[in-house]
Amino acid sequence: MRMLLVAASCVLALLALIWLGQRRLMYFPHPTVPPPTAVGLADVEQVTFTTQDEVQLHGWFVPATQSPARATMLVCNGNAGNRAYRAELARAFRPHGVAVLLFDYRGFGDSDGSPSERGLALDARAARRYLLSRPDVDAARLVYFGESLGAAVAVELAAEHSPAALVLRSPFTSMADVGSYHYAILPVRLLLRDRHAAIDRIAQVRAPLLVIAGDSDRIVPLEQSRRMHDAARSPKAFVVIEGADHNDAALTAGPIVVAETMRLLARVP
Question: Rounded to an integer, what distance in angstroms lies between the CA atom of residue 131 and that of residue 226?
Fold first, then answer.
């Protein structure tokens, strides 16, 4: 009986540690943001804006190579790094006439605060408000691009404020599903505080949708991305990049990602 009590106490202590520290296992921000030129971006505007709960966020507005821009892309990052890690995405799209906003969620890069599901939702809303305040941004040509965790953030934003188009790269159905996939022995569904249940919101999105996923993704199973596509309204498209893992260049800003996104934008009135 004593051994059982000791074992139970150890398990409870472990679960308590996971509960208290789970956001450190979910969000991996990098605080150091290099100058835009250090990551191959020129003519970048350093921007700041404030969320509804008074958190100051920082970002880069990367103008298109043509004026006016064909579209403006709001990028919702994944769960690691900072905006400099997405420079390649801006470099890939700006020659196609797409302006790009790269911004850091709270607690990422040089943005204030600490990340949470509610906080990231407020951050995305603030980024959208900032873009709509700019005279060089056409609200009717605003596109959301969400990668991995950012796909869940972009879906929530799109359900509230419909964009001209929505691109989801490696989206998962929910953080609970991802956690259960990787940590099957833990009661993930009982422990999670930030659930990012994109599958519960995707049917509310009315914008044209493109889902892009890799068939060798070891972080987000391909089947979860497929379920996101299947649960969405039409018009929609599902593109699988063969042999691509979660952070491979082919998925982050590869030619198929760019070409399929531009194909989607070409169909936007």
Answer: 30
Q: What is the DSSP letter of 136?
A: T
Bridge partners of residue 101, in order along the sequence: 61, 74
Which pTM was predicted?
Answer: 0.91
Neighbouring residues of 172: CB distance < 8 A, sequence distance ≥ 6 = 148, 149, 151, 152, 178, 196, 198, 220, 224, 225, 228
Closest CA to 232 of 178, 167, 181: 167
Are 200 and 122 in contact, with CB atoms under 8 Å apart? no
CATH architecture for residues 29-266: 3-Layer(aba) Sandwich (3.40)
C-alpha–C-alpha distance, residues 55 and 121, integer Å: 12
Location of structure tokens 């991802």: 178
- For the segment 157-184, what is each residue's pLDDT rounded down to a tens digit? 999 999 999 999 999 999 999 988 777 6
